[in-house]
Amino acid sequence: MKLKVCGMKNKDNILNVAKLNPDFMGFIFYKNSSRYFNGTIPELPENIKKIGVFVDATFDYIKGIVHKHNLQGVQLHGNESPELCKQLQDLNCTVIKVFSIKDTFDFNTLDPYEDVCDFYLFDTKGKQPGGNGFTFDWSVLKNYASIKPFLLSGGIGPSELDNLLSFLKRPEAYFCHALDLNSKFETNLGIKNTEKLKAFKKELSFRT
Q: What element of type H or E holds 49?
């Protein structure tokens, strides 16, 4: 199971988290977010993909950020069109399209995006476009009919580990490619507790 650590802000913290070798690190380029990133990303190991997180941004804005920070991927949390996703794929970017879930979800919504993104990300529907800090009902994913790999997000932390491990053994988790970790591992906004992340990663690896 791959891991993405999102909402990074502080240079020293970024470098410390990078020592844990997550597969992805996320940087939020949405100015209304309390984890908005407005610095310089330090040099990271090549095996860690840098993912920029955007909400209803223009193609030109995203393209500029991708080039400025040498991002390997983009994560789209708004109402981005399939056409925009295709444009971003043409930049040789990994495209992660986010869909928010609460108690139900119409998976037909995914159909226009099947050929224009690399991953889906399923997050918890709330007041904010991401970063709401609680999980959704994962059993909704029993109705997932695509074969596209997805990332699971929304309030995942150490206290959810047993439920998470149970979910990962079920058929609806077959295409779960990675877990997206954020607020449940923070000491302050954008600052991750590396010891908590290390322990979670070790336990997850041991039990899967």
A: strand 49-54
What does the alpha-carbon distance between residue 154 and residue 161 come to, in Å, rounded to a whole number?
13
What would the pLDDT profile of 25-57 be if each residue is shown by its tens digit?
Answer: 999 999 999 999 999 999 999 999 999 999 999
Q: How confident is the model at residue 130 (pLDDT cuts 50, 70, 90)?
A: low
- Rounded to 5°, the CA angle 25-143-163 comes to 55
- Residue 35's CB: how many other CB atoms inside 10 A? 21
Q: Return the DSSP state at 170.
A: S
Token pair of 64 as six digits: 């500029």
Predicted confidence (pLDDT) at residue 129 exceeds the cutoff of 70: no
Q: Which residues pair with 96 in a beta bridge?
A: 75, 119
Contact indicator for 50, 44 with CB cutoff of 8 Å: yes
What predicted TM-score, i.e. pTM, was given to this entire model? 0.95
Has residue 128 got a pLDDT over 80?
no
First vs last C-alpha separation in the chain: 8
d(CA 202, CA 208): 10
The arithmetic mean of pLDDT across residues 171-180, rounded, is 97
CATH domain 2-207 topology: TIM Barrel (3.20.20)
Q: Where are the domains of the chain?
A: 2-207
d(CA 92, CA 89): 5
How many CB atoms are closer than 10 A to CB 112?
13
